[in-house]
Amino acid sequence: MSDKPVLITMIKKSLDDIIDVPFADGYTMRRYAKGDRDMWIALYDRLDEYYHVTPKDFDESYGDDRDEIGKYVYFLMHEGKEIGTVANWPEPDMNGQKTGRVHWLGVEDGHRGKHLGAAMLSFILQDMKQQGCTQSILGTMNRRVAALNLYFKFGFEAIVYTDQWSAIDDQSEAWSALKDTMPKEYQGMINI
């Protein structure tokens, strides 16, 4: 596998078969509220080893309509503290289907190992379905093997796709390099 982190894209072509994963005791979700911008930036910066998030990144990803952001961005809470985040970001329709993007999913290190990423993914996919989405896409780094395994488990498949978040460069090569390293049950989901 290349040492270079490459943003790769995945698609879940149907939201009819979402795995239901409950949150561990003591964990809840809350929506983004006005005034959360700087806290979100600091939180996500702690969560992502590959990307240093900036206020400009936040503004380019989410815009400046704080009421609109509150419809899509969530925090994972534990004992009154934000320890994770995920978004159901609206995506332009793909092939005539209303599509949501799983965006900026992450959980603090000290809370990992409790299936919180799976619970958040289940939560956000159900949120997409309730908002009328019929499919979902996401971008992740080729180096995030645990995340890739989670996404494959939930029925996401590899695609080569370009949009404002996902450059086409290196995706095919990254997927080809990953294919043989993934568990056999997921290798068939990489048809690039």
Keywords:
single chain, 192 residues, alpha+beta, Aminopeptidase, 7 strands, 31% helix, globular
Any overview of this molecule?
The chain is α+β, with helices and mostly antiparallel strands and 192 residues long. The protein has seven helices and seven strands, in the order E-E-H-H-H-E-E-E-H-E-H-E-H-H. The protein has a seven-stranded mixed β-sheet with strand order 2-3-4-5-6-1-7, with helices on both faces. It starts with 6 loop residues before the first strand and ends in a 5-residue tail after the last helix. The mean pLDDT is 90.
Question: Concise description?
Answer:
The chain is α+β, with helices and mostly antiparallel strands. Helices cover 31% and strands 27% of the residues.
- What would you call the structural class? alpha+beta
By CATH's scheme, which homologous superfamily applies? Gcn5-related N-acetyltransferase (GNAT)
Span of the ends, CA to CA: 16 Å
CATH topology: Aminopeptidase
Helical element count? 7
Q: Please state the CA-atom Rg, rounded to the nearest Å.
A: 16 Å
Main sheet properties: 7 strands, mixed
Quick one: how many beta strands? 7
Q: Which stretches are low in confidence, meaning pLDDT under 50 for 5 or more residues running?
A: none
Q: Give the SSE order as H and E letters.
A: EEHHHEEEHEHEHH
CATH architecture, by name, is: 3-Layer(aba) Sandwich
* Strand ordering within the main sheet: 2-3-4-5-6-1-7
The CATH class is Alpha Beta
The tally of domains stands at: 1
Using the alpha-carbon principal axes, give the shape: globular
> Helicity level, as a percent range?
25-40%
Strand content: 25-35%
Rounded mean pLDDT is: 90
